Amino acid sequence: MEVANLYDNGPISPICQIKEHLAVWTEQRWVGFEVDFIEPQPRSSAFVIDLVAVTGGGVVLPGGTIAAQLLNAIQVNANELAHLRFFVLDDIEAQLWQLSNMARFAPRGGQAGVNLMTPTYDPNLTTSTFWVLGGLGDKDARLGCFNLSGANLPMARIGFFGYRYILKQEKQADYIHPNARYVPAQGR
Amino acid sequence: MRPIILKPNSEGLVVSTAANDLVHTLGVNRSGVSRTAVIKKVLIYNNTGGNVTVQFGTLDLAAVPNFVAYLPTLLVLNGMDNAWTEAELPAVEFTPVDLALVNGRTGDIYLLASAAGIVVSVEIEEFGS
Fold first, then answer.
1. Which of A80, A73, A85, A68 is nearest to A46 (CA)?
2. Any idea where the domains of chain A sit in the sequence?
3. 20 to 30 Å CA-CA from B9: which of B91, B93, B101, B123?
4. C-alpha–C-alpha distance, residues A79 and A6, integer Å
5. Residue A164, strand partner residues
6. What's the ipTM?
7. Cβ atoms within 10 Å of A37's Cβ, excluding its own
8. Does A137 touch chain B (CB under 8 A)?
9. Tens digits of per-residue pLDDT, B2-44?
């Protein structure tokens, strides 16, 4: 299994081997873990979510938005880490928030998102990579979208693929292994 | 390379009224920047009892908007389905123009037919966003 750096340009790969160590940035601090298991999550129908359906149906008006929604499909259990990329199937721009309301991919000038054009510039969707640390309940990742088209959209589909890591907390609180790879699971 | 989004026209199946009929509204991004569009395919059915002419264009920004033709007049034969594809259609780009009144353009795609009742569907390539 090839191990990648966090944002290597190319197909998604795990960022460590099993039994290696991670330091995860979450809730404004680095937390140390040992990785106990890794499994892939291929691009599949189960993880293509329609935000319109999540919000109860209808349409998204031209220029309209769907506010950030907590998506059960990308929640993970406590002491698990989801390592995901995402894409859209409809003419929307999807945006990511983590830990309730912290905008991700958000430089000073605005908040970037993923739209139908993104894979034409970034075929492997490397720039959509994010991590979700489980067990934070309603603070997990949320996604919303903006209708870029000039028409009503009856669907706003977003898909996810990547890896799932099962973690063990380091035996001592606040310990971070010297060889740990540092992973941002929250913006800052 | 200019990446494109190939899509149907926003208004779906349009039935002409012999006045300005909206065919497609350009997409607009979060910053308020519009996309632009090229018509790639036109399919029209005419069962009105006579031949009809149709033009594709946009509107200016006058208080009472005027139709501005962007493509030459097409003759839509009665009793037939009439199709024009990329091979026949010049790549005229529908672009908003932010100038005042008659010098401005919405950029949205409209049709102006000589008679009511022809049924029109259009395929679009959009650029931007």
1. A73
2. 44-161
3. B101
4. 20
5. A39, A82
6. 0.85
7. 12
8. no
9. 889 999 999 999 999 999 999 999 999 888 899 999 999 999 9
Q: What is the pTM of this model?
A: 0.90
B33 in contact with chain A, both atoms CB, cutoff 8 A: no
The pLDDT value recorded for residue A51 is 97
Residue with tokens 């109860």: A56
Answer whether B7 sits within 8 Å of A91, measured CB to CB.
yes
Please provide residue B58's backbone torsions phi and psi, each rounded to the nearest 5 degrees. -135, -175
Q: How far is B38 from chain A (nearest CA, A)?
A: 14
Q: How far is B79 from chain A (nearest CA, A)?
A: 30
Q: How far apart are CA B93 and CA A118, in angstroms?
A: 22
Hey, are the CB atoms on A110 and B31 less than 8 Å from each other? Answer: yes
What class does CATH assign to B4-127? mainly beta
Q: What is the pLDDT of residues B100-122, one digit of tens each?
A: 999 999 999 999 999 999 999 99
Q: Among residues B96, B97, B54, which one has the least CA distance to residue B75?
A: B54
B129: chain A residues, CB-CB within 8 Å: 93, 115, 117, 148
Backbone angles phi and psi of B45, in degrees to 5: -110, 130
| A121 contacts on B by Cβ (under 8 Å) | 3
Q: Is B27 on the interface with A (CB under 8 A)?
A: yes
Q: With beta carbons less than 8 A apart as the criterion, state whether B129 and B11 touch.
A: no
Residue carrying structure tokens 């519009």: B34
Token pair of B33, please?
């920047």
Which one of B11, B24, B129 has the shortest CB-CB distance to A148?
A: B129
